[in-house]
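ok here's Cell division protein ZapA, seq below lol
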Amino acid sequence: MQEKLKIKLSIADRVYPLTIDPKQEEGLRKAAKNIDNLAKKFEQNYAVRDKQDVLAMCALQFASKIEQSGINESENVKDAQERLQHLDELLRTKLTSE
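and the structure came out like this:
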């Protein structure tokens, strides 16, 4: 069993101490950095003073990317199913005509 790791992440000028599995460290640090970078962009591009508003917009941005990715994946699966059904029909037609 791995020992837990204590780290501190800085997001939007606040430090968050966490106790995590060592294998989570890289992902959490990258996620915190992405949030922090996006928050800074929102602060620079929009007249936003409240950190909560900035973090809410960050959460919305990341959540919408996840949702859109799921929608795109669902559409890709549907397209693949339709192509497979078409191939199945072609094979059945070819096999029954021989």
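fwiw The chain has one domain: 5-97. kinda neat tbh
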